[in-house]
Specification:
206 residues; alpha/beta; 2 domains; single chain; 7 helices; five-stranded parallel β-sheet; Hypothetical Protein Ychn, Chain: A; four-stranded mixed β-sheet
């Protein structure tokens, strides 16, 4: 057993467990390199995103069959102290501006057509606000709003152009088999989404 190398097997674990366990292992330390075994594409990307955020050195990313081996080296103390989440501040947004969580492609459920009309109107109204939200998180059927062909796509693109961080749940996109047709925003995971929702005021619609 090599005391300078630790192996973390996160195969078959659901989001966000792989990235949470990776972060915990890095915090515990006691090794020169962390070898992570993962068999899910979204988990692999989330771990690599965490590595970039934590300033870890990525020694290796090798895939054999369905398993990817990722080898990370912890950041030096100085680099770790500098690491911080990227904050995407919307143009004109005051400090502490809200996070908007959208869990559906409509607002309400009595009439699907009315629900989608209300959501489209809500997003358009946000584009006209002097102080738009800091970020918009899309979960469950809410990810459909950011797909190619969505009648809300232009409004979300306008908000993104203004600096609003549009975040789509990777697990939700995979469930709907829509990852390849995401038209705006970036893919993230439950870990980051949870941190955003707990870090400041949030508005939930769906």
């Amino acid at each position: 057993m090599n005391p300078t190398r630790r192996t973390l097997d996160v195969r078959s674990l659901p989001c966000p467990q792989p990235v949470i366990l990776t972060r915990k292992a890095m915090a515990e330390g006691g090794f020169a390199a962390l070898e992570i075994l993962v068999d899910d594409a979204a988990a692999r990307e989330n771990i690599l995103k965490f590595a970039a955020w934590a300033r870890c050195e990525v020694d290796e990313v090798a895939t054999e069959g369905t398993v990817t081996r990722i080898v990370l080296r912890p950041a030096t103390p100085g680099e770790a102290a500098e690491a911080a989440p990227v904050v995407h501040a919307a143009v004109g947004a005051p400090a502490g501006a809200a996070t908007v969580l959208l869990t559906s492609d409509g607002i309400g459920s009595a009439s699907p057509d009315l629900a989608r009309l209300l959501m489209r109107g809500f997003l358009y109204t946000l584009t006209e606000c002097d102080a738009p939200p800091l970020r918009i998180i899309l979960m469950n059927a809410g990810v459909r709003l950011a797909l190619e062909g969505s009648d809300s796509l232009d409004n979300l693109r306008t908000l993104a152009d203004r600096g609003v961080d549009v975040i789509a749940c990777g697990t939700c996109l995979e469930f709907y088999k829509s990852t390849e047709i995401l038209g705006v925003g970036r893919i993230s995971n439950m870990y980051e989404i949870s941190e955003h929702l707990l870090s400041g005021p949030s508005v939930v619609l769906g």
